[in-house]
Design brief:
The complex is a heterodimer.
Chain A lengths: L1 E12 L8 H8 L8 E12 L12 H16 L2 E2 H4 L10 H12 L9 E10 L2 E5 L5
Parallel strand pairs in A: 1-3
Antiparallel strand pairs in A: 1-2, 2-4, 4-5
Chain B lengths: L1 E13 L8 H8 L8 E13 L11 H16 L2 E2 H4 L10 H19 L6 E10 L2 E6 L2 H4 L1
Parallel strand pairs in B: 1-3
Antiparallel strand pairs in B: 1-2, 2-4, 4-5
Helix pairs in contact in B: 2-4
The chains are: A alpha+beta, B alpha+beta.
Chain lengths: ~140, ~150
């Protein structure tokens, strides 16, 4: 069974690689390369996989998941300029692809043997653009 | 590997009617969708792309290139068109959302290699919604899966 919890944060970012020229950055990222940055209301959907516990009837305690998402994602990311204030995005371009990978890496250690496991992270940059990451093995 | 999905919208009219069945059978099968004058929908198209994240750019696909491909192969030919009358493929084939999704996928596949530059991510799935209450998804190569 899969359960999904949604979290939201608003943040600014700029998508440009200092190793590329201005023209190359513009060609790759378009408007997102504007050096002063811009922002989005990012939406994160975290999906866990497991079976309901025979005693509690729950795959995972959603209160714990909510607190985990707040601590690991919302508090460090919300109302921040990702490139300046949230490592590793001082050296990793904060595309939605890299955001999904970073969020996965922050959450994955919290899910051990037995119990629920982390199945997927979906990051919506806008309603019309989202990425799914299911770990390095897939 | 990462999967990126981009959403597009287009509006088109169609009529579900197959020459393989009688008038009465068409009315019975397709119901309101068989109305002789046609009707329309606001379609939502989700195109998913799968591949590795490029280390330099942090991207799985060049979004502008994907947008250009979808615009030229799908949105321009279909948006604000009468699919039965204006899209040649549907002159004979019934423009159900199933057939439309398959047609969109094959159009994207036909233009893929020239539209997506550099290391190529693959086309993962095409999901087409006709109304908010239904959607149709084509995963993988349709011809191979038949």
């Amino acid at each position: 069974m899969f359960i999904t919890r949604r979290a939201e944060f608003s943040a600014s970012h700029v998508c440009r690689n200092p190793r590329l020229t201005d023209e190359e950055n513009q060609a790759v990222y378009g408007q997102a390369a504007n050096a002063r940055g811009h922002g989005h209301n990012f939406v994160v959907e975290v999906t866990l996989e497991g079976e309901p516990d025979p005693v509690t009837g729950m795959v995972f305690d959603l209160k714990r998941l909510k607190e985990m998402l707040n601590r690991e994602i919302v508090q460090p990311f919300d109302h921040r300029f990702l490139n300046i204030e949230v490592p590793p995005f001082d050296r990793v371009v904060p595309t939605p692809e890299n955001l999904a990978i970073e969020i996965w890496q922050r959450l994955e250690p919290h899910f051990g043997e037995g119990g629920a496991r982390l199945h997927g992270v979906r990051v919506y940059e806008t309603e019309d653009l989202y990425v799914d990451y299911r770990g390095a093995r897939t | 590997m990462i999967c990126l999905t981009r959403r597009y919208r287009f509006s088109a009219s169609h009529r579900l009617h197959t020459p393989l069945l009688s008038e009465a059978d068409n009315r019975e099968l397709y119901g309101k969708c068989n109305n002789p004058f046609g009707h329309g929908h606001d379609y939502t198209l989700e195109v998913s792309v799968r591949g590795p994240v490029d280390e330099a750019t942090g991207r799985v696909v060049h979004i502008d290139a994907l947008d250009r491909l979808v615009r030229s192969r799908v949105l321009e030919p279909f948006d604000h068109r009468d699919l039965n009358a204006e899209a040649p493929v549907f002159a004979q084939l019934v423009p159900t959302t199933e057939n439309l999704a398959i047609e969109i996928r094959s159009r994207l596949e036909a233009g893929w290699a020239s539209a997506i530059p550099g290391p190529r991510p693959s086309l993962d799935s095409v999901r087409l919604s006709e109304t908010r209450r239904n959607f149709f998804e084509v995963r993988g190569n349709h011809e191979e899966s038949q």
